[in-house]
Amino acid sequence: MKANITVLGGDGIGPEVAAEGVRCLQQIAKRFGHDFTLTHKPFGGAAIDLTGDPLPADTLDSCMKSDAILLGAIGGPKWSAPDARARPETGLLGLRKALGTFANLRPVSIHPALRGASTLRPEVLEGVDLLFVRELTGGIYFGDKTRTADKATDLCTYTVAEVERVTRTACQLARGRRGKVTSIDKSNVLETSRLWRSVCQRVVDTEFPGIELEHILVDAAAMHLIRRPRDFDVLLTENMFGDILTDEASMLAGSLGLLPSASLGEGKRGLYEPIHGSAPDIAGRGIANPYGTIMSVALLLRHSLGLQDEAALLEQAVSRAIDGGALTPDIAAAGTRAVSTTQAGDAVLAQLN
Is 330 in the active site? Predict the structure, then answer.
């Protein structure tokens, strides 16, 4: 198979973890006879430093012509001053909008060898297998914004069509799992959430009669993710709620560094990235966890390229690498030897071979 993939290393630890994802892509291509053309482009803060724009036209053009995009991470204190003229996050929002990737998939499962990495009791984590479906191109992040000397506003807006399409995505995915969707909102306070709840209910009732749907307020969802996480299957959220809750859910697995994500639209092209940030405090030290990025590569293989066997093989390789003790400092037990970013990648490649 031939595929064009744009690689956006980004900032902080982004280039380090993206490099391990690239090595896995290259190994998969070699083993299965695929032809992956990998094009590296500047993005985020690195692009601001080069061009003044977090999403340069050349980078966007490459992404729009690609079959998939692999992203490391963006951002950092260098570009986060309140009066900054350009921010890395603006580039990411713009890229999501241009690609039309309205559904962000964030799976959360617990590796048996890493139960001790979570602060929760092992019995609470038993059987946890979640999939967040986060609406990605609407809501407060994309609403009109104003700021004066003594006031600021951020407008949260959702349309019926936006809620319909992400609800359909969640239900279609639930059909291949346990058939349950939990829709998360704040309908006791927010008008957008009341629209969200009513549209979600109608779509399920009329198009997905076999799906079990429950509604839950976001504050209750935050509590129950810690109290009874195994009860959830597919969790459907609006943009900001999903951003917050998936970081919370990562602590079930033990580290932000473990979790992948896929941002999808109507077609096959997607944006794939670990859910963690750029972690500038550890950038350049070779200790970042690459597993979230490598698992994002598996999602890329599955969703954008349709390579189911290759995706499963890569996921199994990560699992076996962890079983074999290739643990970076964020997931290694106290007093045990941790491996570097590259060594973790080496362990996955060894399993692929």
Answer: no
